[in-house]
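Morning!

This is the sequence you dropped in the shared folder:
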Amino acid sequence: MTPARLTAQAPVMLASNLIESVEFWKARCGFTANLWGDPPDFAILRRDGMHLMLSQKPAGHEIIPNWHIKDKLWNAYFWVDDAKALHAEFVAAGAPIDYGPCVQDYGVLEFGIQDPDGRDIAFGQSLD
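The structure's back. Tokens below.
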């Protein structure tokens, strides 16, 4: 019997304003989105076979980006085939670039952006 295979993954993050976050990912990063709820409180975003899920945060909940807890720790990481081209695309679309592109010690050409809730999201190209 052939073992089951994993076929995709999706970071799941809370959003302080779901609609604003969805528009950010669409306009600045080229994702498409489906929303659920009335009013919408959950979204699945897609680009190039990758997924990101967003859920409206509960009232009174504080979103704390990982880098506030541990220096330089992202909330999501996407592997890409051309970090320089994606970086240029994001810059042209007005995405808030956090750093890069730069070559990391772990053999990745990487850059990062910040989402509307201040989280660092990285995009890395393996140099192997």
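Headline: The chain has a mean pLDDT of 96.

More detail when I'm at my desk.
O.
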